[in-house]
Design brief:
Length: 279
Amino acid sequence: MTDDILLSAQNLSVRFGGVLAVNNVGFEVRRGEVFTLIGPNGAGKTTVFNLISRIYTPTAGTIAYAGPNGMLPLTDQPPHKVAGLGIARTFQNIELFEHASVLHNLLIGRHTRRETGLWADMLFTRRVRDAEVRAREKAEEIIDFLDLQHYRDTLVAGLPYGVRKVVELARALCTEPRLLLLDEPSSGLNVEETDDMAFWIQDIQHELGITVLMVEHDMSLVSKVSDRVLAMNQGEVVAMGTPREVQSHPGVIEAYLGTIDDVSNLRRPAGSAPARMAR
């Protein structure tokens, strides 16, 4: 395994009762790239994310992650240790504290970088005060990075949906991740907000040097930001390569549109009138 590999998944399979949700999936994520998983609903993309996050345990296969002392088996790590290893995640359904401000949500994201113990926190020692200042500085840095200054002290419950998506991204960045997992970052966003999200992802990659592993349906966003793409269907790998290579792959086209016969059956014969709904 080369030094530029940050995450390696080999022969992953997950079975839920009689359902094989992921079947023999393997891929490697290189340091500094944006690697995207695509596929129709039910393809197994989020299940793979849940394996990396340690929400699920694979039935078979391994996941290796480049820790500070070399590659370590991620599947041996308890879920609460994953963020501390430098892996952060956003969710398709936003998971924020709605009755806390934007700033407080970001400070919660700093919890994984806690530098003091319980007794020092209770006594609020000088070391604790210094750690609080550093946490606030990092949160303010991310607020500036994502242009959230206007919303700093606003309760999350009062924010538009598109801003909430950015706040969740900001909270993940506050953990100072080496690998950022983005689960459908454009879900629920309009065209302008999706363009902004593409801008943030590119800045996260190029300015912060963070590796991004993303699940996404919006192919315009995928094409703009992805270095490599892996397409899945029915729990299996269909194709892997650049966005252009994957989008033109026959198996990917079939997964999204069906076979040529399927598409032909959807066409009306020339000159025929559209069918009317029964009243």
